[in-house]
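Study this:
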Amino acid sequence: MNTQHFKYALEVEKTGSITQAAENLFMGQPNLSKSIKELEDNLGIVIFKRTSRGVVPTAKGKAFLKYAKNILSQIEEMQTVCKNDIPDLQTFNVCVPRGSYVSYAAMSFVASLDVSKPIDVNLGETTSIDGVNMVSDGLFHIGVIRYQTQYERYFCDFLREKGLQSETIWEFENLAAMSESHPLAKRELLSLSDFAPYTEITHGDCNVPYINVAQSENVSLSLSGKKVINLYEGTNQYSILSMVPGSFMWVSPTPEEILKRYSLVQKRCDAESHKYKDVLIYRDGSRLSYLDRKFLDKLYEVKNSVSFRCDR
């Protein structure tokens, strides 16, 4: 039995769609359907059924997928043991929110590794839902996810469903980042109505578990939606803020080095619904490695520095 087919089945479960799973796996939809059918024939069960909500697991399919996830997790641990035979190998594996103080801490930590020794690093910037799925599936050892506190119960349920443990890192207030030349940059305290004439930069795929995007409140706090630039990565958000006149973005408190590099400022707003929480996640039964803990030390160091600056 091909364990690669296990990964295919888990991707179908995650997306609820053969088409989307095939796209995520960079393969043709007919080939993925054929692989799932071969897996079902080998097992002698039907793993998925089509419903009005998309492709969902059958009762036996759910049981199989749980075993498949455990098997892949054990294979990953076995591979880690083999890697440990390489003298002084520095292995680090984390997914984080995009363009945040967390990603800054992760990159700073990676930069501190001893380049004279072997390095095996996987660093991903992604959405919270994808982060949960990837840690649950064993693609990343640990992760940091971010959510609005008003949606906390949904994320807690989602983490329990995925068999993940969590620890709060920081609860904070989102700030408005903008160019030093922005018309609002000199104001002390802003209200949401002040932003109505300006262009909002936002991550376009920040969803909430179990809630349809149309049913949830706008995570980005945008008032009108008339001027919005949706990003699906974090690399260019600061460049766009510095280059697009009148643009702004709701972000976590940002390290001073980033603000200076792109000539940005951060401003408080009196909005009620922009409290966020950053949470460390990892699989049940897994143990944090030495480098995981060193990364957390760096993360708290960066968090404390931006927190101190915002409190002044």
In short: The chain has a mean pLDDT of 87.
